[in-house]
């Protein structure tokens, strides 16, 4: 996907907050938060005995005026579980922007959900997101992400599930250990032109942890971070937004390439730095992000 297409389909996903569908108070709270997306969870944050009630509560909530205005995602239970098929039918009726599939192992998990949604006459605008949280998903990251490479496809976003990955791999949750796996998710998502969101910071009272992980995730190429607590929204929004300096530099790059004398030039020099047209594309993407942040901030006022 080229830069122009990326700009056209660009969506802000700096802060993607999980909210358990078993917690009515937290669900109500999502309407007042400035996160870019909320994932209402029917999976791991909901105990088995509460699954059916949580599904009904979520349906009523998302069809009410209390529904948040940001991008809204429903995480269902795995289709192979006893709740998955009912969750998918119910989620389609909740009119979310996307349905998040947990414990994806390979392309067939996405294709099954896609076919089931087609059979339910779900609109093509109803997207699928995939949790990347099993060793098989990491092995199959390229083929999974490739299902989203056509912009009309349902698959739109990969989410790192670092808690499950650590469990499955019997690894340490140290970011040094996770980094190569996280990069694998970014590489797969970027190869297909879809979004990639980092996993959660479990230490939700320590803002230094979430800020450090957001900075690292942004440097790796992630679009944003999944969050578990409202207090994590502000640092994620701030850190995944382009800085004033980055915006200024991007404007300088756009400006230098727009000069008549550079119309047929592929390489220019600016402040002692070589710039190619690929830097112009990067600058245009960054300016699109900055505009999206500005618009989001205006709508918060
Ligand atoms: C972690 C929590 C259990 C902490 O809850 P609590 O002790 O109640 O927090 P606070 O008292 O500080 O809450 C302050 C107010 O904020 C609301 N709140 C809290 N969390 C959320 C939320 N996630 N969304 C919306 N609102 C929230 C409280 O209701 C308070 O409201 P008020 O009193 O009106 O001011 C809790 O934060 C929580 O449950 N977090 C989400 C947990 C979750 O969803 N886990 C599953 C997703 S993570 C995952 O599965 C990762 C992945 O799959 C992997 O494998 O890695
Ligand atoms: Mg998980």
From TrEMBL:
Pfam families membership: HpcH_HpaI
Ligand binding (substrate):
75, 133
Q: Where is the HpcH/HpaI aldolase/citrate lyase domain?
A: 14-230
Q: Which Gene Ontology MF annotations are present?
A: catalytic activity; magnesium ion binding
Instruction: List GO BP terms, alphabetically.
Output: oxaloacetate metabolic process
Record keywords, A-Z: Magnesium, Metal-binding
Entry binding sites for Mg(2+): 133, 164
What InterPro entries does the record tag this protein with? Aldolase/citrate-lyase_domain, Citrate_lyase_beta/mcl1/mcl2, Pyrv/PenolPyrv_kinase-like_dom, Pyrv_kinase-like_dom_sf
Q: Which cofactor does it need?
A: Mg(2+)
Q: Which PANTHER family match?
A: CITRATE LYASE SUBUNIT BETA (PTHR32308:SF10), LYASE BETA SUBUNIT, PUTATIVE (AFU_ORTHOLOGUE AFUA_4G13030)-RELATED (PTHR32308)
Similarity comment: family membership = Belongs to the HpcH/HpaI aldolase family.
| Name of the protein | HpcH/HpaI aldolase
Q: Which species expresses this protein natively?
A: Nitratireductor basaltis
């Amino acid at each position: 996907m080229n830069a122009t297409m990326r700009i056209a389909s660009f969506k802000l996903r700096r802060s993607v907050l999980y909210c358990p569908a078993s917690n009515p108070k937290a669900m109500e709270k999502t309407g007042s938060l400035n996160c870019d997306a909320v994932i209402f969870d029917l999976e791991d944050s909901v105990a088995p005995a509460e699954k059916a009630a949580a599904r009904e509560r979520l349906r009523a909530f998302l069809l009410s005026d209390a529904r948040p205005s940001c991008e809204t995602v429903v995480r269902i239970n795995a289709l192979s579980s006893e709740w998955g098929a009912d969750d998918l039918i119910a989620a389609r009726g909740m009119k979310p922007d996307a349905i998040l599939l947990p414990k994806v192992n390979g392309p067939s998990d996405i294709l099954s959900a896609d076919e089931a949604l087609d059979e339910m006459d779900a609109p093509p605008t109803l997207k699928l997101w995939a949790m990347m949280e099993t060793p098989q998903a990491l092995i199959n990251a390229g083929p999974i992400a490739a299902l989203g490479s056509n912009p009309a496809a349902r698959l739109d976003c990969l989410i790192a599930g670092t808690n499950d990955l650590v469990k499955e791999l019997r690894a340490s949750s140290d970011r040094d250990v996770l980094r190569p796996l996280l990069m694998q998710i970014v590489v797969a998502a970027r190869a297909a032109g879809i979004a990639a969101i980092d996993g959660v910071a479990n230490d939700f009272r320590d803002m230094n942890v979430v800020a450090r992980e957001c900075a690292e995730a942004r440097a790796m190429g992630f679009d944003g971070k999944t969050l578990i607590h409202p207090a994590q929204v502000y640092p994620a929004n701030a850190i995944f937004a382009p800085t004033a300096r980055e915006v200024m530099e991007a404007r300088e790059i756009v400006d230098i390439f727009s000069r008549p004398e550079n119309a047929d030039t592929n390489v220019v020099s600016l402040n002692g730095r070589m710039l190619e047209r690929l830097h112009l594309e990067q600058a245009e993407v960054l300016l699109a992000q900055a505009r999206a942040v500005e618009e989001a901030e205006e709508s918060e006022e």
